[in-house]
Specification:
The chain is α/β, with parallel strands linked by helices. The chain has two domains: 2-243, ATPase, nucleotide binding domain (Nucleotidyltransferase, domain 5); 252-429 and 458-495, Nucleotidyltransferase, domain 5. The protein has 17 helices and 24 strands. Helix 1 crosses helix 6, helix 11 (304-313) runs antiparallel to helix 13 and helix 12 packs across helix 13.
């Protein structure tokens, strides 16, 4: 059997074909796209038609590469960027471009919602999460307040991966994992929070699709698509999920003790939990996963976005960047960066800016700037890990994905900051692999997902890095200094 995994990300869509028996990725294809230009500050939007076009193109390329083996395709799973707002009219057509997870133009709506419910603590009690600009709920309120005619046209509200499922099957639904990132759902009860939904819009409840377990399929591939792609009429489309939920499956992060850190444009850190995790500070997102459990998660908006900027600033290739990082000791000789160049989600600083602190003649060099940037964004995730520990999530190993994990030097920094071993996966497919695995798990029904992942998801032991206790101590102290500096500047409206 072969299962396809479609990963619809912020910058591109990628499709892979997974051989179920061997665990091999038989073919892959990707197609890039960008953001809509000339938007107001903070707004980040895309045309969902770009996702459909990219998914269709990459699926066709993968099927062409499979040749006669395309007849073995039995299922499709979809991973999608979380939180994006896709509004459809009564005919299933897109009403307006999708507002994305990285859109920070809804800060005022977050304040309004939070104030109405008596503060962040009360919202966390009701839904398990604070109200952040990245989530879907404030985007819906923004749409209702700023584009009332478009809101009147809206008959159905979907997330990006749900929209691709709708395109594949003709059915609109939401599974628990991705839906938990809307800030409209009670994560403990796994049902829509009626009072929050009512406040966002009195008619919103009728525009939300039905919730369903992540183990239940979204449907069967539409007859027209199956015929057009040369597939059988009984191809199953699994529920799919958000990219972090699918990344958890694709990295084998489906049991206690394993944590995944994604070093991409943004940074994410997430772990498996058998019970709901609600952070009273609202810093750790209390999500559900896409295996019908839970997925506490921390997201930072600035990760390789910052290190790539530094690399391009000095016209370095990746080898030169690594050499620069390796030439400077842990702690960058006192140079400290607050890397909030595009605002930040954790901590919640939607209008935040960056800071360089501790500059001296000795550390005012390109290499020190590179080291400080890499340490800063890693410590952002390290702060999230410290919050995990406070909430009872104890990591024994951290599995790295994303472009930053290709750097041996950066893997060492991660191990030292996190204080536990880190290791990469044999396959770098991550969310796409997780989507394909979920499709196979769904088709097999009673199959044991941990056994499936142990067979298909393999570690690349050559990438393992162990923490240096001396450096871990340095980074612990540096993180404390970061928190003091951040709070001092924020309290004086300087950050």
């Amino acid at each position: 059997m072969i299962f396809l995994g479609i990963d619809c990300g912020t910058q591109s869509t990628k499709t892979i074909a997974l051989d179920w028996e061997t665990g091999a990725v038989l073919a892959s294809a990707h197609q890039a796209y960008g953001f809509l230009p000339n938007l107001p500050p903070g707004a980040m939007e895309q045309d969902p038609g770009e996702w459909v076009s990219a998914a269709d193109s990459t699926v066709r390329q993968v099927l062409a590469a499979l040749g006669p083996r395309r007849s073995e395709v039995r299922g499709i799973g979809v991973s999608g960027q979380q939180h994006g707002l896709v509004a459809l009219d009564q005919d299933g057509h897109v009403v307006r471009p999708a507002k994305l997870w990285c859109d920070t133009s809804t800060a005022a709506q977050c304040v309004e919602i939070t104030r109405h419910f008596g503060g962040a603590g009360e919202l966390i009690r009701r839904i398990g999460n604070a109200m952040l600009p990245g989530y879907t709920a404030p985007k819906i309120l923004w749409l209702r307040q700023n584009e009332p005619e478009n809101w009147k046209k809206t008959a159905t509200v979907l997330l990006p991966h749900d929209y691709l499922n709708f395109w594949l099957t003709g059915t609109a639904c939401m599974e628990f994992g991705d839906a938990s990132g809307t800030a409209l759902m009670d994560i403990a009860k796994r049902e829509w929070a009626a009072d929050v939904v009512e406040f966002i819009a009195p008619d919103l409840a009728g525009k939300l699709p039905p919730l369903q377990p992540s183990s239940k399929p979204a449907g069967t591939l539409k007859t027209a698509l199956a015929k057009d792609w040369g597939l059988s009429a009984d191809v199953v489309v699994s529920s799919g999920g958000g990219d972090n939920m699918m990344g958890a499956i694709g990295t084998g992060n489906i049991q206690a003790g394993v944590v995944t850190a994604s070093l991409g444009t943004s940074g994410t850190l997430y772990a498996f939990s058998g019970s709901p995790v609600a952070d009273p500070k609202g810093e750790v997102a209390g999500f559900c996963d896409s295996t019908d459990h839970w997925l506490p998660l921390v997201c930072t908006m600035n990760l390789t976005l910052i290190t790539e900027h530094v690399r391009n600033l000095f016209s370095w290739d990746f080898a030169a960047l690594d050499a620069a990082l390796e030439s400077v000791p842990a702690g960058a000789d006192g140079l400290l960066m607050l890397p909030y160049l595009t605002g930040e989600r954790t901590p919640n600083l939607p209008h935040g800016t960056g800071v360089l602190h501790g500059l001296t003649i000795a550390n005012f060099t390109p290499a020190h700037l590179a080291r400080a940037a890499s340490e800063a964004v890693t410590m952002g995730l390290g702060y999230g890990l410290s919050r995990f520990r406070e909430l009872g999530v104890q990591p024994s190993e951290i599995r790295l994905t994303g472009g930053g994990s290709n750097s041996k030097v950066w893997r060492g920094i991660c191990a030292d900051v996190f204080g536990v071993p880190v290791v990469c996966l044999r396959s770098g497919e991550g969310a796409g692999l997780g989507a394909a695995v979920q499709a196979g798990w769904t088709l097999e029904g009673s199959a044991n997902l941990p056994e499936i992942c142990s067979r298909i998801v393999g570690l690349d032991e050559s990438t393992r890095a162990e923490p240096d206790a001396r450096n871990t101590g340095r980074y612990t102290a540096l993180l404390e200094k970061t928190l003091v500096l951040r709070e001092a500047l924020h309290d004086r409206n300087l950050l």
